[in-house]
UniProtKB/TrEMBL annotation:
This is ATP-binding cassette domain-containing protein. One of its GO terms (cellular component) is membrane. PROSITE patterns: ABC_TRANSPORTER_2. Residues 9-238 form the ABC transporter domain. The keyword Transmembrane applies. Keywords: ATP-binding, Membrane, Nucleotide-binding, Transmembrane, Transmembrane helix, Transport. It is a multi-pass membrane protein. It comes from the Bacteria. One of its GO terms (molecular function) is ATP hydrolysis activity. It is found in: Membrane. Its main location: membrane. Pfam families: ABC_tran.
Amino acid sequence: MSVRDENIIEVEGLTKAFGDFKAVNEISFVVKRGEIFGFLGANGAGKTTAMKMLIGISTPTSGKAKVAGFDVFTSAEDIKKNIGYMSQKFALYDDLTVRENITFFGGIYGLKRQQIKNKSNQLIEELGLEDVKNQLVGSLPLGWKQKISFSVAMLHEPKIVFLDEPTGGVDPITRRQFWEMIYKAADEGTTIFVTTHYMDEAEYCNRVSIMVNGKIEALDTPQKLKEQFKADNMNDVFLKLARG
């Protein structure tokens, strides 16, 4: 079995209940190493709740799941060490400079001082941040913040990066640049687990899961989903599923 055939995420019957309400209702899927896996759904569909279980910050009610080889019930701390996480809301510290942010998160991820220095220099050069490395992050455009956030989430070379609505609010050019960064990371073997409400971005994923009311109602490649639902694009697929 090649490395790319390895299941890096395995989910079986995963459920999260709040009283009688099941926010996530017995979902099952696998994600391969190096895959770009799109996790789609309308607000309230359960995708954020599901992601919280997978990243080790919420305990499932029932079911099974392994992330990077670690059990979500018993090894949440090991999961956190092996993943990166970025969301639209969680970014960087606005009152620290670009370099200070990189140094701070490098320390959080347990990197040694020399590693942090090397990674900082590499990241600043790759993103073309030489002129702004000593500026406060709060003074930078949102698109720059998002690209830096993604790079910081990759600092410790995690096996999987979870991206929760990473391109919300940024312009189309920045969105395209951001996806180029995602492709590069995936090519190097990092698994990308991404939620987005931009249906055109679903086309960029290797496979897409669509959640409706806590359940996965469709899961396949974008091309096969369009064929299955006789749709011209992923937005049409999503609308057909949402209407039932």
